[in-house]
Predict the structure.
Amino acid sequence: MLDTHQLRVFLAAAETLNFSQAAKRLHMSQPSVTQHIHNLETHFGMQLFVRAGRKISLTEAGVTLLPMARDLVLSAIRADEMMDTLKQEIHGQLWIACTTTPGKYILPTIMADFLKRYPKVEAFISVSNRNDAMRLLNEGKAQIMVSSVFDYHPDIEFHKFISESLVLIVPKNHPWTRRESIKLDELRKANMILREKSAGSYMVLRDGLAQKGFDISDLHKILTLGNSEAIAFAVQEGIGVGFVSMLVAQRIVKEQVAIVKIDDLELSQDIYIGQHRRLPSTSAQVAFWKMAIEPQSEALLKILSYLS
């Protein structure tokens, strides 16, 4: 009878084409990986790998086995998760890959509520750029992705999680704080602190300005920073003015900066939550997804209170 653990070892070796790397991925010793592969080859009565020194490659039999092994392992995982669900016990690990703003200002609130409900879950949050977060999700290393921007992928299910305003903040002593609002053209005169071009908030600002016939390159940019928190602190220090999410403005520098309204310009960015359609869902993943998209969840209502 086939051993699903041996099939997992085979998959790791087939995907890395390196027994040492497969051992590291599986937290096993290399001799143990080699022995499992040998036992599997004995079971089938044929070689699955061609060994040439430290290099290995799949034989025709190995190539044939690969998709079937994936299906069998996924079926075994689904069976385990279904049995866990039937026991009504949510446990295991949950890995979420996310971009900067959700990772720092949204997920901690959601995660606090989630871990209170499911204390047996061990959670990991990886904050990175959008491309790395998508890669982790596609590779099955992360079960959930949260991002302010997403690229369409047929295997990824995205759900609009929340919308947040993008606001202009200025130092407390700035002349604009004495007015109810400013004209859009006045932005041309300001020393502007911006995010990098690949950031979701930069794209929202660029597109919002373009809709008003304003090219973002017309702004007098004096500084580019890698996250909204850094922009907020730079504004607080009087370096210039900048656009940040309302969450950053309200939770990080609320008393140190001022929000300035701009006539006929309202900016908002959507935050999305995503999961892979074809990879098996863990019980912790199912529970988190359900809680995150509940419109009246306690954690979501708490976040919305910061945005009002």
Notes: Residues 229 and 252 are 7 Å apart (CA to CA). The domain at 164-269 is CATH 3.40.190.10 (D-Maltodextrin-Binding Protein; domain 2). DSSP finds eleven helices and eleven strands in the chain. The mean pLDDT is 86.
